[in-house]
Amino acid sequence: MFESPQQALDALSRVGYFTDSKTATTVYLAGKINKPIMLEGPAGAGKTELAQSVARAAEAELLRLQCYQGINEEKAIGQYDKSLQELFVLLKTKAEGEHDWGQIRRDVTSREFFLAGPLLTAIEQPKRCVLLIDEIDKVDYAFEALLLELLSAWTLSIPKMGTVKATTIPFVFMTSNQERRLGDPLRRRSFYLVVEHPTPEREAAIVKNKTPTANAATHRFIAGLAKALRSFNLEKPPSISEMNDVAQAMQLLRLDEILAIHKDIMLPLMVKTEGDLKRMLMKQAFEVIIYTAKKNADAMEAEEVADTLAALEVTA
Q1: Per-residue pLDDT tens over the stretch 72-101
Q2: Could you count the other beta carbons within 10 Å of the beta carbon of residue 274?
Q3: Domain 5-74+122-194 has CATH 3.40.50.300
Q4: pLDDT tens per residue, range 115-139
Q5: Could you give the count of Cα atoms lying within 13 Å of 81 in the half-sphere of its Cβ?
Q6: CA–CA distance, 75 with 19 (Å, rounded to integer)
Q7: What are the structural domain ranges in the chain?
Q8: Are 222 and 243 in contact (CB under 8 A)?
Q9: C-beta neighbour count of 179 within 10 angstroms
């Protein structure tokens, strides 16, 4: 999908995913040698967004298998269309003459009668796609085992039909919020990346991409606010997308900065559990968060000024 790590880095940046050379190199290598990428890290850190961004950057179709407790083979691979099978058998048996039951059985268990799920659809694409297996840590080890054939041989074994070989090999991403440890067989077949929340500088760039008309001070403040909130020991630290929501809300409300008087209108955007809300309402916690956010933003600005002066000295 990409011809070099730098091209992967540039392409991801163009579609609004700002990352580092390590991630870009892993994406490049995985695409070249057909390895899935296992992405682990906190919820909202950008794991799913990385897969979506690779699809956008490569202009490839994105197919998604959303995992959950109790997901089974039918949801992942597909199932036979029983109503169509019954209709076919009914029409055949109503026809005059002898019936070849062996042929009828072969017909109704052929690909034409099978409704494909995301995994089968992905390997049947005429053009390489991106396959996102999201929140795989929610499934059990039995479902993990189901994936091993796909990720090893790029085939799927379907009862009564046989083995289906991949027309094209999908670019596979598996995400995990680390609710449980994934099995070693799955890990051995994958490249591995830990996706953490971005640095303040990178988060400011992400926010700028979402709110380009806001000023640089606002972008730095949002990045500083994200760092302050994630350091506050919340039950649910804010995701990147939630911080983008805060930035857009500030823009819509025509706020250049968040003050203590904005607590009631901003807390619904910043915290998402009852426990976190109680924490933010106690002992001027909100005011401390805003104060810390401003300090973080000032530190970012000072660092930017220092970097600019250093660059000027080099070119002088």
Answers
A1: 888 999 988 888 888 888 877 776 566 777
A2: 9
A3: yes
A4: 989 999 999 999 999 999 999 999 8
A5: 15
A6: 33
A7: 5-74+122-194, 78-116, 200-315
A8: yes
A9: 11
